[in-house]
Amino acid sequence: MESGPHFDLQLAIELYLQDIDQDHLLDRDEKNELFDHFLSGTEELMQQGYSEEEAFEHCKAGFGETDLISREYARARPFRVSLIAAAGGLLLFFSIPIINSLMLLIAAISYRGGQLLDIPIRWISIGNLALMVLLLGGIGAYLLDRLKKRPYFRKAELWAIPVSAVLLPLAGNVLLMMAYNRSTAYRYQIELISSLFTQGNTITQLSILIPVITVFVLRHRSRRSGQPLLAHGALSGSFFLFFYLLLGISSISLLSPLSLYAGHWLGFPDGWIKMSDIVLKITMVLSLLGYVGYRLKKQQFFGSVESVVLPILGLICPWVANWTFWFVDAATINVRLINQTVLNSATIFQIALVLLILLSYVLISRTQKRLTAGWR
Amino acid sequence: MKSYSKDLIAASTIPIVLSILEKGDNYGYQIIKEVQTISGGALNWKEGSLYPVLSKLEQNGLITSYKKQENGRERKYYSIKKNGLKFLALAKTEWASINQILSNLWNPDPTLTSN
Question: Is A372 an interface residue toward B (CB < 8 Å)?
Fold first, then answer.
């Protein structure tokens, strides 16, 4: 029997294997092994008179459903699934400072370009907003495109995103210093750059809407197809971690006014207020880490309530945290003390992030050990 | 053609794979072919499900793998380790014991029953 003129066996096998390796669990050796299996199978069938295409289809039918094989690999590789979930969550989280830096860069370019071309302030502001919305739309489209393709993130993104999260804010600040000098700026210029930054901050906050909407769309699809909520373990784990990181950073900031006012009301000296602020924030971080650790042990990361509440909290809390210090009255509270609590928040969050990475590693290793050591 | 329940197939997969490897080193495709030959086609595994099992056995130190060039292609061969042999010996005892229990239940020895 003849094969169809356009049938490419190598490509057909590769595509089939890609479907099996949905969550990026297989290494190159394992893919080669499966590839060899298909080649051996098709060669044998072709010797019996089958065409290349028929032989491949026959092998495919005997090999089994890709989803099932993928799940069996995931069960054999709990370590890799959790690791991908943790990496995905951290990558999503690192994308926030990247977006913020890009907004800063756009603000600097709009400001400098507007000044050079002598564009009216109103048009600079509109142009800046349009550029920012365009960038956000592009990022959203990219994320949705990545979710359709598998694996969800490329290997290059594993290092490119964290490195960019560190380098881009630095580049943004340097460019801003080159574009704008506060000491020689006129009042209208200061007001203009402030409004451009406010637009940037607002758009960055809005960018959180992209994962929130994505989670709700995936939730809706899962329910419609009768699958468990956000069926893919690695994907739901990534979103879960991302929203908890947002909650973590927001709640640390939200605790600042609480410790300031409570300390002030109780008549604590400044030293005590600083100390109680640190204790409160550390307690909050440890409780959150404990809870995340407990949840990470479960195969289905999102509970039904969490799948609704967590994205909403992840969206609202950073907004609330951003406006927290508007309510702190500098006349009542010492400004140095306010700055100290802000510094506490930043330091504690950085330590928490390191702890979170370590905790993920320990939990994943323990799960792996439990599933393999006691297994005969 | 005879066929077995999914549960029985799942429970017997590891002892079968280890038994084939006990006879000599082998690779995935050939292991499946041997199973089909020995069972006369009755043990109709979904071929793709063998590889996660091999991966798990290797992770648990029951088997090991190495690469070998064959007909211009690189093949991943598996060989059984000491731990695998120990595991297989235990599995043989357990399956024999279950077999004995079921035989006793289904074909009771009249000399062993009182009255």
Answer: yes
Model pLDDT for residues A60-119, shown as the tens digit of each residue: 888 888 888 888 887 777 667 777 777 778 888 888 888 888 888 888 888 888 888 888
Find the mean pLDDT for residues A234-254. 83
- From the candidates A10, A29, A33, which should be mutated to test the interface with B, based on the most B CB atoms within 10 A? A33
| Residue among A20, A41, A63 whose CB faces B46 most closely | A63
Q: Could A64 and B46 be called an inter-chain contact, meaning their C-beta atoms sit closer than 8 Å?
A: yes
Looking at residue B99, what is its pLDDT?
92
Closest Cα in chain B to A27: B55
Asked if B76 and A32 come within 8 Å (Cβ–Cβ), the reply is: yes
Kindly determine whether residue B90 and residue A76, on different chains, have CB atoms separated by under 8 Å: no
Q: Name the phi and psi angles at B56, rounded to 5.
A: -65, -40
* Residue contact A68–B53, C-beta within 8 A: no
Question: What is the Cα–Cα distance from B4 to B12, expressed in whole angstroms?
Answer: 11
Q: How many CB pairs under 8 A join A and B?
A: 70
**What's this model's pTM, rounded to 2 decimal places?**
0.68
**What is the per-residue pLDDT for A143?**
80
* DSSP β-bridge partners for residue B27: B77
Report phi then psi at B79, rounded to 5.
Answer: -135, 150
Question: Using omega within 30 degrees of 0 as the cis cutoff, is the peptide bond preceding A151 cis?
Answer: yes
List CB contacts (< 8 A) between B84 and chain A: none
DSSP class of residue A333 equals S
Contact present, B34 and A346 (Cβ < 8 Å):
no
CB neighbour burial string for A315-344, b if at least 16 within 10 angstroms, e if fewer: bebbeebeebeeebeeeebeeebbebbeeb
In the predicted model, what is the mean pLDDT of chain A?
Answer: 80
Give the residue with greater pLDDT, A219 vs B39: B39
- DSSP-derived letter for residue B9 is H
Tell how strand B63-70 and strand B26-27 pair up: unpaired
Yes or no: say if B27 and B77 are a contact pair by the CB < 8 Å rule. yes
E strand or H helix at B78:
strand B73-80
H helix count then E strand count, chain A? 13, 0
Q: Which residue of A lies nearest to B52 if distances are taken between CA atoms?
A: A73
CA gap A108, A197 in Å, rounded: 9
Taking CB atoms and an 8 Å cutoff, what residues of chain A touch B29? Answer: 36-37, 40-41
